[in-house]
Amino acid sequence: MHMARLITELNKCLPKDGYLIADGGFAAHWSGLLFDTKKAGRGFIPDRGLASIGYGLPGAIGVQLAKPVGLTGDSGFNMVLGELETARHMSLGITVVVVNNAASGYVKALQHLMYGAGNYQSSDLEETNYASVAEAMGCHGVRVEKPEDLQSALMAAFAETNRPSIVDVCVTRDPARMLPAVDNRTVVVKKGDRVA
User: Fold this and answer.
1) Which of 13, 23, 25, 66 could form a disulfide linkage to 56, CB 3.0–4.6 angstroms apart?
2) What pLDDT, in 10s, does the model give residues 150-190?
3) Residue 14 has pLDDT above 70, yes or no
4) DSSP state for residue 191 in the 8-state scheme
């Protein structure tokens, strides 16, 4: 699945008064480009100023009274997985969408652009089914591998009101397709070029 499809489905499914809390990395990059707020105010809360990852789940807990949706990558989610127990213990009906590309995707995509296919260092993650992890922790979990299953998975997660939901979305593993085309880092640079 492509990240653009994931953000499109979030645009369709998130209620007007919902909040999208976007972790650093691809979560903030793609949602910043494609997510549409439906009313004035702070319906989109990215952690871009610090350029950090690991903010999606605790950020969603922080604004839990507003019924947020956290969007995080698998690498960032791994950093704060223990906070899922906190959210379950507090009976928070938050939804966290995990962008699962089995990598620190931003890092891998940039390595792909700079050094070429197959030249990756410390960017791959073990394939993990975060829906199964969530279920093992007493939360609602669903894994989405096909785009046509995404909307129903999101709606089922939004319906959970007394426990956290993890929607584990398998996105492309191809580092050549991870960055948006409008990202200036996707420009092919030839000797003598100056790219801003």
Assistant:
1) 23
2) 999 999 999 999 999 999 999 999 888 887 765 655 566 67
3) yes
4) T
What is the SS3 assignment for 95? strand
Closest CA to 126 of 174, 173, 56: 173
Give the CATH number for residue 109: 3.40.50.970
Total count of domains within the chain: 1
Identify the domain containing residue 154 by its residue range: 3-36+45-172
Tell whether 186 is covered by a domain.
no
Q: Which two tokens stand for residue 100?
A: 């699962």
**pLDDT by residue (tens digit) across 31-61?**
888 888 888 877 887 776 655 777 777 777 7
- Residue 142: φ, ψ to 5°: -145, 135
Its pTM surpasses 0.90:
no
